[in-house]
Amino acid sequence: MTRNVIGAALGAAGLAVVLAGCSHPPQPAPVSSRLSPTSMVEAIRAARASDKSVVQVTPLRDPSVDGYLDGAHADENAGKYQAALRKVDAALKLSPDAPDILQFRAELDVLQKNFTAADADARKSYELGAKVGGLCASNWQTVLEVAESKNDAAGVAAARKQRDTCHKAGPIRM
What we know:
By secondary structure, the chain is mostly helical. Helices cover 69% and strands 0% of the residues. It has helices spanning 2-22, 37-50, 63-77, 81-94, 99-111, 115-128, 133-149, 153-164.
């Protein structure tokens, strides 16, 4: 019987050591890839693509502006964000009040972690834009992403509310 008691005591002590090894202080939460600049831009562009508003405004513009923008998109795809930004700035010199170009610049700002400029460009794009549709949604998604990167819950909520007002449903047909 002494042998069983000693064995049980050793077993319990061993189990306690094993369980103590399992209980360690909680590790900090891993940094979310959601806040990576590329993930942020993906969310911004997804907001624009997923908005199926009845109203979508697409500007007509000088073909030379489109040349700069095509080059900027190619530079962005190659990871040359500074070069892309220079081309977008050249396009804005020709068409300074183009809300879609300002939004593109905001997205490039996010990719470069220049969140203050991204927020300002998105808000200016909204002010100059139609205030409905996909561009509007991407403007407010940009503001939301910037607020989220700063852990600004009130800013996130306000931007989400604004983004949701961008959608305009079409008439119900029967």
